[in-house]
Design a protein that fits this description.
The chain has about 300 residues and is an alpha/beta fold. It contains ten helices and eight strands. It has a single domain, classed as Arginase, Chain A, CATH 3.40.800. The protein is about 40% helix and about 10% strand. The longest helix is centred in the N-terminal third of the chain and has 24 residues. The N and C termini lie close together (about 5 Å). Bound molecules: zinc ion (ZN). Zinc ion (ZN) binds next to loops.
């Protein structure tokens, strides 16, 4: 299984910041040290071209992130302090998702050890999301005729508002979000399918709801490519989540998604999205599970 990763994914932010920036290097180390991904399967992305970013973002916003021209209000909304390293990391991670999608088209499954920054909107970032990597990747791959129909399976505990908004009028992109109904974002632009779960939803209810939703989607939509945002914030121990999945239950969620997609012979791109477990180590272990599951399934 090939994955995108760059040491540049780790931007400089204060250690006291709530965002676990070190999870990216931690996951790379965990996967390679445990033989889940070999060093030769790690593909380092370059920075995405601004011309590609503006397929999903306004030219003003795409350039303002790069040049550091965001105002204080915009930075506060983004939730991450601006630095050149943050701007670089954001462009690296978007290209990492484009590359992972292309590798998935070639090999059936691939991943980016970052990405899934689904709250980012065309003209602003929010909720720790700078650029919307999935939206840019879909736009770029569609424009270059690599794919026509795309499915986004967003299992981060927060609704995928940016992706839903960007593709609101595109019948060839099916956006599915399963999330905590009471979680951020409080204004949720409709996805093609939204499932808002009540607080404290546990493993078995979550799994059955997910299985039924995927069956329903595949009954009506056959994509050329699938993105899986495997955010680990549905965990009961998450700082921001309101659901109550166990670590084992989260692993089963990953298995359900990966098995459902790949048994239909559809290319699948794995992305991290959010996760705020009590420690970086626990965050890494939870994010690693989808890669372990894919490895167990022969990828
Ligand atoms: Zn989240």
């Amino acid at each position: 299984m090939r994955v995108s990763y760059s040491p540049g994914y780790v931007a400089d932010i204060p250690d006291s910041h709530v965002f676990p920036m070190k999870k990216f290097s931690g996951l790379h180390a965990y996967l390679t040290q445990n033989g889940i991904v070999s060093e030769s399967e790690v593909v380092e992305p370059s920075m995405v071209d601004i011309s590609n970013l503006i397929t999903a973002h306004t030219s003003r916003y795409a350039n303002a992130v790069w040049t550091g021209a965001l105002d204080r209000k915009e930075i506060r909304r983004m939730g991450l302090p601006w630095s050149k390293s943050l701007a670089i990391r954001s462009r690296l991670a978007v290209q990492g998702t484009i590359n992972a999608a292309l590798m998935a088209l070639q090999e059936g499954l691939a991943g980016n050890l970052a990405g899934g920054t689904h709250h980012s909107m065309p003209d602003h970032g929010e909720g720790f999301c700078v650029y919307n990597d999935v939206a840019v990747a879909i736009k770029v791959l569609k424009q270059s005729m690599w794919v026509n129909k795309v499915l986004v399976i967003d299992c981060d505990v927060h609704q995928g508002n940016g992706t839903a908004y960007i593709f609101r009028n595109d019948p060839d992109v099916f956006t599915f979000s399963i999330h905590g109904e009471k979680n951020y974002p409080f204004k949720k632009p409709p996805s093609d399918l939204d499932i808002g779960l009540p607080d404290k939803t546990g493993d078995s209810e979550y799994h059955q709801t997910l299985i039924d939703a995927l069956d329903h989607i595949f009954d009506q939509f056959t994509p050329d490519l699938v993105f899986y945002l495997g955010g680990i914030d549905p965990l009961e121990t998450d700082h921001f989540g309101r659901l109550a999945l166990t670590l084992k239950g989260l692993r089963e969620r990953d298995r359900i998604v990966i098995e459902t997609v790949t048994r239909r012979d559809l290319p699948l791109t794995l992305l991290l999205s959010g996760g705020y477990a009590p420690s970086v180590e626990e965050t890494v272990i939870a994010h690693a599970q989808m890669y372990e599951v894919a490895k167990e399934m022969g990828f």
